[in-house]
Amino acid sequence: xxxxxVSKLSHVLSKYIHDDAVYAKVRDLLNCEMEVGLARSTxxxxxxxxxxxxxxxxxxxTECGDYLALDLGGTNFRVLLISLKGxxxxxxxxxxxxxDELMIGPGYKLFDHIADCIANFMADHELNGKQIPLxxxxxxxxxxxxxxxxxxxxxxKGFNCEGVVGEDVVTLLQQAIKRRGDINVECVAIxxxxxxxxxxxxxxxxxxEVGVILGTGTNACYMEKLQRVELWDGINSEPDQVIINTEWxxxxxxxxxxxxxTDIDKEVxxxxxxxNKQIFEKMISGMYMGEIVRRLIVECAxxxxxxxxxIPADLNTEGRFYTKYVSxxxxxxxxxxxxxxxQILDELGVIKPTxxxxxxxxxxxxxxxxxxxxxxxxxxxxALINRINKPNATVAVDGSLYRFHPHFHNLMLQKTQSLTxxxxxxxxxxxxxxxxxxxALVAAVAHxxxxxxxxxxx
Length: 458
Fold this sequence. Notes:
alpha/beta; six-stranded mixed beta sheet; 15 helices
């Protein structure tokens, strides 16, 4: 009796399962879109914008001293004090929440809140009166015009503050600090979390060439040769390289990924805050994975493939199936109990007793969707590794999806290697607090270079 149902379930899930040829096509398409973004004549119309970060140098081990770091990239905001002493890093930090109304209200109120957080932190750590170089991790698409000049291209991750798009966020931060009038802070570098992720790992592994975020959103950066960056307007001196912030979340916004998108992908996009934007991100990241799984479970239940066709009200509620459930369900062993899965389904109002076969099928749905996400990310990383074309390269990865999903690392490592040019080896390394430590390291490198240049000029 179960075989027809299994066959029907396999048919439903087959739209999310692809062979290496499909992922190789995704890899090659991304490379083409990156070329469009790097070229002067086509950048304006590119969906993968390939923003220049102006970060050319990685840590060399001589950085030392105290640095402040700010981290804004989601619903929480952090202020950090980081002390560099040789190979050791000492960090102190405090987390501040961002109210929903600040995420969608006037931009100046958001930056006033950030300035308030900085002042609170400096008072707590007796830093008032001191001027410490500061690195600002601002994890939204920015067009940088210098190491400490970045204009917001568009909001993502649920933010939509007015008066910020097109403006230099460092200037907005400095204006908010000036309005307070009681703290002395200079932002010497702005970066996004991918650059911080890369820099954090590069501090201990100098072969780090790629930074990837797999969390609420997804993005990647990598070290590119200056000769390929037609829009480069900095100084043409050593090192002849610069980190490029790809903003690959927008890959597919022009329709080039429609061949791997499903009806549910399109529904999730249509009901999102930013329809027709961030298409690649919506098939991978934590903000959307749970919703894709929820809609797929509802589809399977409506076809009588699980829960005897019953769909509880919670499962019919958009956003109710959290991405963390996917990781928890996939941690369950097929031992006949499925304790985590049972608990989650109970929370969602699935009528007891939940059959083990239902647990197995829910787990299979989660597995297929998370595998697809991991493999799509792998295709993107393979495109970057092939461009870098070095025998050994380390990929720094951070984000809650990568960090907490039980299989993401192994899935990505295996698939990325299979999609990478023969002879190129890669290592994947969890970035420890890239958006915090990484921001301070960018500030530290900038401070080292500025100090060295001043010494030479004098």
